[in-house]
Design goal:
With 183 residues, this protein is mainly beta. It has 2 helices and 13 strands. It has a 6-stranded antiparallel sheet, with no helix packed on it. The chain has a 5-stranded antiparallel sheet with strand order 9-8-11-6-13, with no helix packed on it. The chain has a two-stranded antiparallel ribbon with strand order 3-4.
Length: 183
């Protein structure tokens, strides 16, 4: 497995090894002992999956406040996404900075979005399925979000506000300028 840091400490892509032949491929997307050694023993407790029918669907930017904060290990089962994390750790020298990476079923990359980061993605193909493992259970009162296209963040999304599909919750999320980080 190859691990690459994405420019902000703690944010990585992981490329599990694929075994391919004329039938297709086999890949271990998660193996506890290998991941423990690579990711300092993160313990994943829940698996989530989302399906997005339309291209340019945005999910995020989301977080869960401590003590229910989550590390997320994100991968694409079908389709392609532009995956984004934003550092919101108050004491971090990279506070407010973002990194993004294309994840797809074809490239097999996974992204680790650590606690203390906003996370979101935009689908680049219709009928996209995203799966992710998390290190804390969902806790509704700790659930929060920041508007995905907050101009202060300067995220270079593939399309702008008028072309994206959002949930009502994500469309109503507050701008980053008004956000007070719980991290």
């Amino acid at each position: 497995m190859e691990i690459s840091e994405l420019g902000i400490p703690g944010v990585f892509t992981l490329a599990p090894r694929r075994f391919e032949d004329d039938r297709g491929y086999f890949v271990e997307t998660y193996t506890k002992n290998k991941f423990d050694a690579l990711l300092e023993g993160l313990e994943f407790v829940q698996d989530n999956e989302s399906y997005s029918r339309d291209r340019h669907t945005v999910r995020g930017l989301h977080y869960q406040s401590p003590p229910h904060a989550q590390d997320k290990l994100v991968r694409v089962v079908r389709g392609r996404i532009f995956d984004v994390v934003v550092d919101v750790r108050k004491a971090s020298p990279t506070y407010g900075q973002w990194v993004g990476k294309e994840l797809s079923d074809a490239n097999g990359l996974q992204l680790l979005a650590p606690k203390g980061f906003l996370h979101g993605f935009m689908t680049l193909e219709p009928d996209t399925i995203v799966a992710y493992k998390v290190t804390a259970f969902y806790h509704g009162p700790s659930d929060g979000g920041v508007y995905w296209a907050s101009p202060e963040l300067g995220v270079d999304w593939p399309v702008g506000e008028g072309e994206a599909t959002l949930s009502d919750k994500d469309a109503r999320a507050g701008r980053f300028a008004e956000f007070t980080s719980p991290f």
